[in-house]
Amino acid sequence: MMVRQKQTVKQTQASQLVKRQITSGTREWADRNVNCMKGCSNNCRYCYAKLIAKRFGRCTEESWKEMQVRGDVVHRTFRRQAGRVMFPSSHDITDSPEARAACFAVIKALLEAGNEILITTKPRVSVTRGIVETFGSCMSQLQFRFTITSANNRLLSFWEPGAPRFEERLQSLQLAYGAGFKTSVSIEPFLDYDPAPLVDLVLPFVTESVWVGPMNYIPRNGISGKDRRRYDEIRSQYEVDHLREIYTCLKDLPRLRFKDSMMNRIEFEDEKARRCAQRRRRAAARATTSVCN
Ligand code: SF4
């Protein structure tokens, strides 16, 4: 009984944490999320879904990479949902036959129910081609959001070890764009110190939006000595003055959007500076008044 109560508390905590993550992250993009796999072979070092799954005993550092189909979702009957559905948000559409079959079945079911879908992926060309060919007749209901966080394959292979190289992601973007689909790109987290050259590379193939944002979760524990420098470097890359510099440099570009996680930090610091200046002005005014009296 005690064990069951503990499990229920754990499950509630887990769902609250996941809800918070959805509100602050993917809610900017869609009204609800659908996922049909456990784990993700991309195994990104900054993965928040992995952090939560590990914290609540649903996987280990090692087992997260092994993707498992969630039969309950694949065989579910979907209804038409209000607003846009993001698919997937806590795994990727990889090219393993099981993952591909499960993900395509879910996309089909969501489309047949009349849903509008935002497909978010670190794209493989074979998967992108498969979606384009299979669901071309529903293209008005689909938008691709390709996550392309750097053009530097050394950075990609460190931070997103199981995900495709830059060239494959760019080729996927070009393929979907060329086929007439709605396309957008997420440069979140931007892995280069300056994301502007990457924005220039992807922008010509984007019909909707390019999103830029920092890394929201940077692990502090379990990092080997040889990797620590990389984590320190990336942490300093997201200091607020640098975020402001990037914002100033990119803000006037067409279709460019900034994630709330970036704008909130800039606005929070600006508000702090404004209040600080206000306090100083008041203190100076009080000092002048007391001298006059
Ligand atoms: S692609 Fe997304 S879900 Fe998969 S490991 Fe990377 S951050 Fe996590």
- Approximately what portion of the residues adopt beta-strand conformation? 5-15%
Share of helix, binned: 40-55%
**Order of SSEs:** HEEHEHEHEHEHHEHEHHEH
The multimeric state of the shown protein is single chain
What are the segments in which pLDDT stays under 50 over at least 5 consecutive residues? 1-23
Question: Which structural class is indicated by helix and strand composition?
Answer: alpha/beta
Radius of gyration equals: 22 Å
The kinds of small molecule bound in this structure are: iron/sulfur cluster
Task: Report how far apart the termini are.
Answer: 73 Å
CATH topology descriptor: pyruvate-formate lyase- activating enzyme
Total count of strands: 9
Question: How are the elements arranged and paired?
Answer:
Blueprint (H helix, E strand, L loop, with lengths): L1 H23 L7 E2 L3 E2 L9 H8 L12 E2 L1 H4 L9 E4 L9 H16 L3 E6 L3 H11 L6 E6 L5 H7 L6 H13 L3 E6 L8 H7 L7 E3 L15 H10 L2 H11 L5 E3 L1 H33 L1
Parallel strand pairs: 1-4, 4-5, 5-6, 6-7, 7-8, 8-9
Antiparallel strand pairs: 2-3
Helix pairs in contact: 1-2, 5-7, 10-11
Bound molecules: iron/sulfur cluster.
Explain what this protein looks like in three dimensions.
With 293 residues, the protein is α/β, with parallel strands linked by helices. It has one domain (29-292): pyruvate-formate lyase- activating enzyme, CATH 3.80.30. 49% of the residues lie in helices and 12% in strands. The protein contains eleven helices and nine strands. It has helices spanning 2-24, 48-55, 71-74, 97-112, 125-135, 153-159, 166-178, 196-202, 228-237, 240-250, 260-292, and strands at 32-33, 37-38, 68-69, 84-87, 116-121, 142-147, 182-187, 210-212, 256-258. The strands form two sheets. The chain has a seven-stranded parallel β-sheet. A two-stranded antiparallel ribbon has the order 2-3. α1 runs antiparallel to α2 (48-55), α5 (125-135) runs parallel beside α7 and α10 packs across α11 (260-292). 31% of the residues are buried. Residues 1-23 have low confidence and may be disordered. Bound molecules: iron/sulfur cluster. Iron/sulfur cluster is lined by residues 40, 42-44, 47, 49-50, 90-92, 122.
